[in-house]
Amino acid sequence: MRFSIKSPHLRALLWPGLLGLSLSACSSLSSLAGESFTLEGELPANFSLKAQAHYGVANGCDGRSQAKSFESGFQSDPQQYRFTIPVSYREGLCEMRLARVGLFIHGRYGDKDWQQTYDNGDLVIVDKLPEGAPTFQSNGTLTKQAECSWLFKLSTAKSRFGQIDKILTCKNAGAHLVHTELSNKVVSLSFRESADERPYMNGFWLKTTIGWKPCTGRWGTELEELCTEPPQFKTFEMNGRACTVYPNCTE
Hints:
By secondary structure, the protein is mainly beta. It is 9% helix and 48% strand. The protein folds into two domains: 35-197, no CATH class; 201-243, no CATH class.
């Protein structure tokens, strides 16, 4: 049944109330916005962190999963980073809930584009913590430290064949987080760069008192090879120089 309000005096009395109800409904739709947690910590010089938060639909509406990215950028000195990451929010009528946060730890060891690489970490959102997983302290902070190391090898790329190439590997770069306990909490995840570099392949470089020397001789190739007895060594290129030992180049 339809009806209309013909009296202008009655319309004047009813419209403010109807408008108030409408604004109240709009306000309730956005009430879930603002639930968040803080991801913060320290990065070594020439490191950058990108956090990619992934969200799924939590209330059965016809919506798609989404992602939000946060990035610190590179700095030549150690830096502090701080990201405020939503735990849940509204997208129209859809209730979006945090599913996980992928971490991309970038490091650079030179000024060329190929002298950058990265390793991954992960903040896993769970309903219950795995046995032994650390929990939030009484002050609402979960503190962890990741250690990143450089692995070196001789490049096989044609454009830089025989030059020192590095791979980044980071341990302990992540955490398990309970979704219902995450709002307004702080995850403090700092990264430390190890000074101890080591070869990417075991047995292909020989450690001496003056540094690491790449072996050759078993197959006679131009790449580093498994060390023989007695060992034979080859030269390599680093920063435009012909070198015999890493990292000091010359003996």
